[in-house]
Amino acid sequence: MEFVMKINSAVNSFVWGAPVLALLVGTGCLLTVMLGFPQIRYFVPAMKEVFSFRKKSGGADKSISSFAAMATAMAATVGTGNVAGVATAIHLAGPGALVWMLISAFFGMCTKFAEVALAVHFRQKDAHGDWRGGTMYILEHGIGDRFGKFLAVIFAIFAFLASFGIGAATQANSAAEALSMGWNIDHLYSGIFMAVFVGLVIIGGLKSLATVTTLLVPFMAVFYIIGAVVVLIQNAAHIPGAIGDAINLAFNNPETIPAGLAGWGVKEAIQRGIARGVFSNEAGMGSAPMVHATANVDHPVQQGFYGIFEVFMDTIVICTMTGLVILTTGTLTSSPDLTGAQLTLQAFENALGVTGKYVLSVGLLLFAFTTILGWYWYAETAVTYLFGVVAKPFMKIIWVVLILFGAAGGQFLGAVGNDFLNNLWDISDTLNGLMALPNLVGLLLLTMTLKKLVKDYDKKNAAGKITPPDFFNEL
């Protein structure tokens, strides 16, 4: 295992290192220019589309509404990375990391828009009549030939294996930790509850999954945002200074810094900020398109609007709020030894006292739990692509077992169980990064297809052939 983890560490430093991160952001920059800055010119239409809460679903077509597809994708996207990941980046690289996180998110909005539009365009029906889409289908049916098929299989394998850690075991562990931290609930009881509840949800298929996430995701986002807003209102006087420090340290090395934070610097801020931003919103990773492809929508570009909103809400809103809570409460410098969720927890407690602990524990619980639900669909889509619909029941069983082990395995196996979970997370993190490589190849090779889709949408929208969002009619 030690040898395996050394190899994993080397690969991880590559996929989350400067070359691949530059490729991720560079692809976003190229697409932004080639597609005419869709994250800007489609931003208002995207907001109107999302907040119309469009209910259009496919019925016998087995598709779901565009909003439900986005909610399921956001269930997987908005996770513990919005709390622990942001805190870790700021701890290791300073406040400047937050600025680079936002810069990467701006281009990530275009990347997510592009991969979602392609996923809807190239989606296929499986043997049970369910829509399946995502990078593997884009590569196989968009690029074609043996090269496209090879990349598709590689991506599906990476996604399938990455889901074990990112989507199931470690998320269950995070949820159990949140319940233990807030209410002293035993990890085993937490694991049993989550395994049973998730099992009941995924048995019902995509529509059951979408129904639950459509209810949970808006609630958890609003709940966390309100908690963060209360903290920021209390510390409003410190917000301008925090923003100023973040901008300054994003482009300038600090002249005087506390000894415990001596690793701060522009290079670290860029790399850590972009890495955590990409990890949080998953733009360029190819995961979210797997569920967006199931939406019943008039045009692929129209579903791409939801990809723009997804990155905006995940990183520009929620991650920014987490970062500002840490910076405005002074927790970063008063508790330099803390990192991850513990740093964010301390920030909330500094502002709200014991109430802050409960706000964050509930937030962490919801983030982790919905990630389990969202990533299940990714795992099922990957395994269906690799082995066919016959593998779906086995995937459900594996998922439930992983949840139970993730929540309570460390409790019964002690250090061995905890080491296994940590190793599983590290390997899954590497596999998640590797997913980006075939996905980005597909995006770059299909840029002209994307341009045609955008042009076709603009033409049909101008001719009134696209159903506009209508908030009151949808209600």
Structure in words:
The chain is an all-alpha fold and 475 residues long. It has one domain (8-454): Amino acid/polyamine transporter I (Up-down Bundle), CATH 1.20.1740. It is 78% helix and 1% strand. It has 22 helices and two strands. The chain has helices at residues 2-15, 18-34, 38-41, 43-50, 66-77, 84-93, 96-121, 135-143, 145-183, 187-203, 205-234, 239-251, 266-281, 289-292, 300-328, 331-334, 340-352, 354-387, 392-413, 415-445, 447-462, 471-474, and strands spanning 124-125, 131-132. A hairpin with a 5-residue loop joins strand 1 and strand 2 (131-132). It is globular, with a radius of gyration of 21 Å. It starts with a helix and ends with a helix.
Write a concise keyword list for the protein shown above.
475 residues; 78% helix; 2 strands; mainly alpha
Reconstruct the topology from this structure.
Layout: H1 2-15, H2 18-34, H3 38-41, H4 43-50, H5 66-77, H6 84-93, H7 96-121, E1 124-125, E2 131-132, H8 135-143, H9 145-183, H10 187-203, H11 205-234, H12 239-251, H13 266-281, H14 289-292, H15 300-328, H16 331-334, H17 340-352, H18 354-387, H19 392-413, H20 415-445, H21 447-462, H22 471-474
Antiparallel strand pairs: 1-2
Helix pairs in contact: 1-20, 2-7, 2-13, 2-20, 4-15, 5-11, 5-15, 5-18, 6-13, 6-17, 7-12, 7-13, 7-15, 8-9, 8-20, 9-10, 9-18, 9-19, 9-20, 10-18, 10-19, 11-15, 11-18, 15-17, 17-18, 18-19, 19-20
Number of helices: 22
Strand content: under 5%
Describe the largest sheet. 2 strands, antiparallel
In percent, how helical is the residue content?
over 70%
Multimer state: single chain
Order of helices and strands: HHHHHHHEEHHHHHHHHHHHHHHH
Coarse shape: globular
Task: Give the distance, in angstroms, between the N- and C-terminal Cα atoms.
Answer: 55 Å
CATH architectural name:
Up-down Bundle
Number of strands: 2
Which segments are poorly predicted (pLDDT under 50) over 5 or more consecutive residues? none
| Order of strands, widest sheet | 1-2
Give the rounded overall mean pLDDT: 87
